[in-house]
Design a protein that fits this description.
Blueprint (H helix, E strand, L loop, with lengths): L1 H7 L6 E3 L2 H6 L4 E4 L14 H17 L5 E4 L10 H4 L8 H20 L6
Parallel strand pairs: 1-2, 2-3
Length: about 120
């Protein structure tokens, strides 16, 4: 929606996303699509090569697209297997306790970091 408002004001936009159907339904003017898990539209965490490719594709699309409506799908893959789709963010009886502990630890660490004036890069 923000992209459409900017486009109306004459400012071209590109959105990098991983939920193509949602982006298209929202009327996003220009899309760089990575078929990756939600929350990781630019690429894998700490994979600067994949992230730089996504940003380069977005800048290239911004520069070359003549009008809104362009979609560019990148060939990036989360893993060699598509099995991640079945298990990504799944909460099961087998991992529920572990995920609760990880969440609690993450919250403690973020609070400690905030108290120390630190932030996540």
């Amino acid at each position: 929606m923000t992209a459409r408002a900017l486009e109306t004001a004459g400012i071209a936009t590109v959105v990098i996303g991983s939920a193509l159907d949602i982006l298209q339904r929202a009327g996003t003017p220009r899309i760089v699509f990575n078929d990756l898990p939600l929350g990781n539209p630019v690429g894998k965490p700490f994979d600067s090569t994949m992230q730089n490719e996504s940003l380069s594709a977005a800048l290239n699309l911004l520069y070359t697209a003549q009008s809104p409506g362009a979609v560019q799908q990148l060939p990036n893959q989360w893993s060699a297997s598509e099995g991640w789709r079945d298990n990504f963010m799944a909460i099961t009886p087998h991992n529920r306790e572990q995920l609760l502990l990880l969440g609690e630890e993450s919250r403690r660490q973020r609070l400690l970091n905030r108290e120390q004036g630190l932030f996540r890069p």
